[in-house]
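Deviations from the work plan: none for this task. Representative record:
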Amino acid sequence: MDNVCSEKIFNQVYQNWGKPIFNFLFFKCGDDAQASDLVQEAFIKLWQNCKNVPEAKAKSFLYTVANNMFLNEVAHQKVVLKYAQLQPNKINEQSPEYLLQEKEFQEKLQNAIANLTEAQRTAFLLNRIEGKKYSEIAEILGISVKAVEKRMSQALASLREEIEGI
Amino acid sequence: MDKNYILHKYLNGEASPAEVELLKTDPEFAAYLKVSEAAKGFEAPTFNSAETFESLQSKLSGKEVKVRPLFSVKQLMRVAAVIAIVVTGYWFFDNRDTTFTTEIAQKENFLLPDASEVSLNAMSNLSYNKNDWEKERKLSLDGEAYFKVKKGSKFSVETPQGIVSVLGTQFNVFSRGNAFIIACYEGLVSVAFQDELVKLPAGNLVTIENGVLKTQEVMADVNPSWIHNESSFKNAPIGLVLEELQRHYPITITTENTLNKEFTGSFTHTDLNTALRSICDPLQLNFTIANDQVTLYAKNSN
């Protein structure tokens, strides 16, 4: 069958899923070097098991392996997230005072996200940054859609609580 | 409608504008919307796809040859090399020739593996292989030595000038420079030099110079005089005598003019003055000693 042992297919899988797996791991651990290492480990696992993995299953294989690796290696670390770059504010004609408030708010939000539990943060950021639907998140994390809903609600509630004055 | 349901619809991107407006009326849900919108503004750090892939490739190509057999050829070779070194090393040390060397004025007495006795005169070198000794009693000599050989198989002494072999006897071999002198004190000695073979019965002495038989004479001694710390000569060139003298005393001898005399007699190994007088008096010579320098000159006669 069409397993990923062929170098061409393997490269294709990497092109398609390298970045999403990296983001997924980054949302979990918040360290891009570590995320990058884990991406490599995940793809090495895929290559070693290439005979058993058809191309169509490669994506879920990678997410599962990445998740397991994260659990094995870093689940118990206290993670402090540093988000790389904030997108420039789309509205330019705001007053300096408003911009300052806005910046302050983003910083608070960033801290609040860092303080979420790993489960909440991963689900929340997969939805918000990656734009994934609940069903996709449920598949990636191997949980039910209902559980994703719960995590999202918990995440939002805890963010609102943490950021005062909204 | 349940606002929570609408919130999840909104997060899934399925809520209608009207539903979003409805949520905004509730301050709690308005806050959720604001947080959700703002969170969209974040992004994950850039993923260096190409670099990661390259390092992935190198790891993959490295991992393919990771299986190592329990006994690799390389490991076996290492073990074999160590064993080889130890074995050859032992063989080398064990197989080394046993060597005895004497310096000026030094004499050495020792037994060979078959209990034959050897006395080694000064400035001589004798060596044999103790492993081969049982098969063949053979040793090499450079210098002078006296042998009392136990009866048994053939016993050979190899010198640069020739080979002396016996079955069991007492004999002296002198092998220095061009001179090759063999004295037999007991039994029968055969001397092979160049292409010649001389059988030497007890009480005989043979002098071979430059591979040519010079004299074969009868002697009265029962063993060589040097054993008793004395060197004896009979019609020997003065050069040979002085050479022997320098083997027993740490001196350098210079002669004033070329002496062309022959010496018959002996000198002691224990006292230089006496030894010099023993040589000089019969030859009408005088000598002076300054440190290790001994000068001989003819006595002023007429």
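Chain B has a mean pLDDT of 83.
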